[in-house]
Every structure is written in structure tokens, then in C-alpha cells.
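User: Quick sanity check before I run a bigger batch. Here is a single chain. Can you write out its predicted 3D structure?
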Amino acid sequence: MDIGALAPVDRHVEGIVEVMLDATQNCAKPLTVKRLHAWHGSLFPTGRSGMAKIRVAKWRDDSLGPMQVISGPVGKEKIHYRAPPAERLSDEIRRFLMWFESFEDELDGVIKAGLAHLWLVTIHPFDDGNGRIARAVGDMALARSERTHQRFYSLSSQIQLERSGYYDILEKTQKGDLDVTEWLLWFLVCLDRSIRRADDTLSAVMEKARFWDRFSETKLNERQVKVLNRLLDGFEGNLTTSKWAKLCNCSQDTAYRDILSLVELDALKKSDGAGRNTHYVLVSKDI
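Assistant: Done. Predicted structure follows.
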């Protein structure tokens, strides 16, 4: 919960969790060059991005040519973005950090988070990991605006889920003029979806907790606990004695006895269907 349920499909999950925890739980501490470098080192502890060796905890040097974001096969590459040359990085980062730590602009904290993300990812200071660090900076700004390190949602997680739309709006903004209105609108809508998704997650967690609280002193067997948890986590289709038997690798007679016991305990109830349409659903009660 501390990082707002970060998306679990990130191959750099351990490093990004460390970065996100530092960015949000220590949001009041200043953002510095040293801190950005430490975050980058956490993302790439082996000094490699995949098979490629990269400069870790250092600004890129463009020794292999200008930094470009490209896609497509060799010979038919599409350039999505060309970053500022490496010799400008120190000055660009200095200006960014001065703005980020300034409290004189009276800019709304959420808007500042959107601008900070866009600004840093546009500077593109590292060989790799720029998007992840920019997302961490954005979440850091949001934590500051809320004046709390407790996180119940993650904008970084939502952006990961919507990365196709994210890359589209990012490319459009970086190739356009200095009007960033469309970027901020996308950022705000994405933030709204992140909060709504977190609300749904928390509701499900609370519902599950309330359900098990009702049966905290009731002795249930392993099969019953297993299937009830499957139902609470979002079971696809209808629960029948046949499905219970398959899930628990038991006979249909055993499955029926398990179900009947839960019906008597008021944990399950029979649906309105009959015959082959007979199935069972959870009994939810507000506590």
C-alpha cells in the first residue's frame, strides 16, 4: 500500500520500488543531482540495461551519437524524439532542479507534478531509465502537494498500464510548440483513473476483510478457504459443484458437502437457477 500498488509486471521491480519509496516517503527532502544519480544506480545495479552496458549514476555522454528514442527495424527506424546534446545536461538539470525546489511560483502541486515529469523526461539525462525516474519525480511532487508520504494510488502504475497513450501524447508534445495543455489534460485524466482504480482496489480489500471477519471464529477446511478466496478475488463464471470438485481435486459428493456447509453458515447461497443452472454466490453483508 505504501507505493500505491505498483504494477507487478516490471522487470526492474525491486529497483523501482526502492526509488518510489524514497521519492514519496521522503518527499520533503530536496531533489538533488546526487539523489537522481542514486535512483539511477538503484534501477541498474549491474551497470547494464539488458545486454547493453550503460553509464550508471552519471549523465549520458552521447559518445555513440545523439540520444534518440527510436522504433522499427534496422534501416527503417522511426525517430520519435531527439534529446538535447550531452554538453547541455548539467545546465538543463540545474535549471530544472531550481524550479522544482522553488516555492515562490505558487503553482498548483498537481500541475507542477505534470510539468516536472514532462520536463525531466524531455531533458532525458540518462542512457536509460529516464521514464521511470521522471514518473518517480512526478509522484514525489504529488506527495508534496498532498503533504503526506502515505500512498494509496500510484500514477506511475497507471502510466505503465496506459503506456501506449502515454508515448503518443509525449511524442506529440515534444514535437510540438511550447503549449503543453494537451499533455497536462492527459496527465490529469490519467491521475483521475489512477485514483479511481485505487479506490476500487481498496473497496475490494475492505470487502474481503469484512467477509473473513464474519468467519474469524469459524473452522473451515482448506478447500472452503481456497474457493472462498477465489470468489472474493473475482471468480470467472458461476460456481457449481463440478467446478468446486475440479478446483479442489475432490469428488462431487465432497464438493457438495463443502458447499452445503457454507450455505448453512450463510457464507454462500443458492442462485435462482435450478437443475444444471444451479450455482452458488457469496453472501455479502454490510458491517
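The beta strands are 48-49, 52-53, 68-71, 78-82, 268-270, 280-282.

User: Great, the batch can go ahead then.
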